[in-house]
């Protein structure tokens, strides 16, 4: 009876003349299975009700789904796969022929994992006391208007809601040529964060790999749409990889293309500097000039404020790191990931004269390019007491640029693991790991209870000659003492890797 009453109320909102079909998911999660619907698979004439019934996820795959309008209820997910499409196309835009995400309380979720979604009127992400969530990893979603969430305040009714859009991939397009909104372009996209008639509406959009396209010119200052977009950014309602814009540095590129008619909004990296003004916590916004870094940022750990800089109980991300002389980075737990994949950047220990240090007490550190332990005239050291440090290539110290400037590089693996190289890194094996000792460079690595893992077979041929040279020349030591060899195996302890550990009870062992 409750379901029937709710349906009547919604039909009244939709208007007379719509056919209706309601999801019950009685057979499976397939949109195109007729028995999953009260009146068969929807077509372009139907107002569709996707209720919280049957399968938890309604899957649109291997076909073109249609509806005149759709009400998407809380507790249910609709997933559009790469081989599917969804078109919500009412006869007359502006007559409530929309996609409502959601109704009925709880959380309604639309996942676009490929394929295309087209809505010729509103997409309302969050509606009438029901939170709405759109997650995109690929594909496209195009709508005449997008509201995050949709404000529907009425006296004596509770309509407070939240709306969230996560663009990890794909493209969200708001508005299009011929949509009839050229006189009111700011209607095409709106994020609401306000209180209306005692109802609270809170919306957000995170650009974390995908693209936001807004029809019309949203780049040129002076227009309503420009002012709105800037307020969404400065208010922290549009974020880049979860990071709000802080300190005046723009985290977004906004570009209008008169040829396509769209303004493209993308996240961008900042040159983010440590100030240490508050404490030693990496995650404290007060310690950075532009707030905590995100995965696009070039990070400069200067010798300012607190030292060491501490990462604990969180996932730190950035594009690259340059540690300046006199500064130390300490990872106690959680993780640190450097996403740079180019030769030019990576992890520099360090910049400017002096000494720099990375200490890993636990957690994981992942460097997707170079780890340079000592650079130019700045000495660098790495102390691994636990956890793991993985890098595409590790040079101790770096001997590329500034070859005639003296510096040292030292690595100590007291416990935990140092991993150099990985499957698919595109490198010749010899470039993954190097201990450089020249007239100007002095490198060393000490292993105690930890392990060194080198991708590829370093137990024979030229790679063994290089590794044996490091050992016999005393560049690799055990507990600070020169030894003739270590316990070494390839593809035994760690598949695909040469594993190097302390000697067993003082013996020399090479397992091949």
| Alpha-carbon distance between the two ends | 74 Å
Our count of helices gives 3
Gyration radius from CA atoms, angstroms: 29 Å
Give the low-confidence spans.
1-16
Task: Count the beta strands.
Answer: 41
What's the number of structural domains?
A: 2
- β content, as a range? 35-45%
Secondary structure class reads mainly beta
Helix content range of the residues, please? Answer: under 10%
What about the largest sheet?
Answer: 19 strands, mixed
The protein's oligomeric status is single chain
Based on Cα principal axes, name the global outline: elongated
Q: What does the average pLDDT come to?
A: 90
Model description:
The structure is a single chain. This protein has 512 residues and is mainly β. The chain has two domains: 17-267; 271-511. The protein contains three helices and 41 strands. The strands form three sheets. It has a 19-stranded mixed beta sheet that branches. Strands 20, 21, 23, 24, 26, 27, 29, 31, 33, 34, 36, 39, 40 and 41 form a 14-stranded mixed beta sheet that branches. It is elongated. The termini are far apart.
Keywords, separated by commas or semicolons:
41 strands; 2 domains; mainly beta; 14-stranded mixed sheet; 45% strand; 3 helices
């Amino acid at each position: 009876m409750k379901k029937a009453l709710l349906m009547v109320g919604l039909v009244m909102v939709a208007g007379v003349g719509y056919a209706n079909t309601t999801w019950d998911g009685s057979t499976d999660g397939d949109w195109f299975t007729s028995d999953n619907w009260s009146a068969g698979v929807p077509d372009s004439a139907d107002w569709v009700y996707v209720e919280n019934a049957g399968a938890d996820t309604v899957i649109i795959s291997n076909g073109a789904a249609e509806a005149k309008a759709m009400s998407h209820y809380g507790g249910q997910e609709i997933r559009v796969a790469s081989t599917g499409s969804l078109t919500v196309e009412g006869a007359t835009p502006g007559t409530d022929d929309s996609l409502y995400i959601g109704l009925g309380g709880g959380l309604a979720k639309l996942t676009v994992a490929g394929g295309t979604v087209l809505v010729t009127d509103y997409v309302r992400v969050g509606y009438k006391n029901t939170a709405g969530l759109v997650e995109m990893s690929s594909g496209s979603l195009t709508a005449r208007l997008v509201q995050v969430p949709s404000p529907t305040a009425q006296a004596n009714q509770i309509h407070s809601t939240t709306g969230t859009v996560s663009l990890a991939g794909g493209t969200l397009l708001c508005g299009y040529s011929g949509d009839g909104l050229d006189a009111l372009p700011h209607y095409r996209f709106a994020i609401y964060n306000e209180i209306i008639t005692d109802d609270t509406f809170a919306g957000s959009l995170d650009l974390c790999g995908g693209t936001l396209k807004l029809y019309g010119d949203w780049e040129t200052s002076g227009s309503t749409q420009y002012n709105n977009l800037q307020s969404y950014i400065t208010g922290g309602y549009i974020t880049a990889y979860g990071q709000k814009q802080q300190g005046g540095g723009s985290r977004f590129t906004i570009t209008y293309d008169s040829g396509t008619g769209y303004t493209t909004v993308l996240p961008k990296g900042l040159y983010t500097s440590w100030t240490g003004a508050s404490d030693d916590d990496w995650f404290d916004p007060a310690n950075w000039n532009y707030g905590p870094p995100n995965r696009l940022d070039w990070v400069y750990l200067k010798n300012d404020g607190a030292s060491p800089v501490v990462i604990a109980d969180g996932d730190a991300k950035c594009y690259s790191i340059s540690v300046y002389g006199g500064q130390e980075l300490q990872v106690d737990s959680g993780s640190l990931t450097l996403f740079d994949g180019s030769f030019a950047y990576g992890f520099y220990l360090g910049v400017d004269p002096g000494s720099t240090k990375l200490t890993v007490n636990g957690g994981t550190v992942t460097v997707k390019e170079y780890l340079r332990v000592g650079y130019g005239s700045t000495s660098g050291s790495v102390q691994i007491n636990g956890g793991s440090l993985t890098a595409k290539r590790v040079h101790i110290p770096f001997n590329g640029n500034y070859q005639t400037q003296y510096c040292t590089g030292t690595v100590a693996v007291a416990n935990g693991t140092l991993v150099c190289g990985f499957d698919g890194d595109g490198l010749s094996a010899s470039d993954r790991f190097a201990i450089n000792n020249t007239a100007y460079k002095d490198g060393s690595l000490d292993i105690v209870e930890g392990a060194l893992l080198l991708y590829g077979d370093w137990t024979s041929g030229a790679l063994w000659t290089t590794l044996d040279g490091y050992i016999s020349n005393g560049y690799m030591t055990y507990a600070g003492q020169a030894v003739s060899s270590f316990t070494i195996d390839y593809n035994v302890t760690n598949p695909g890797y040469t594993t190097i550990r302390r000697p067993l009870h003082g013996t020399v062992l090479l397992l091949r």
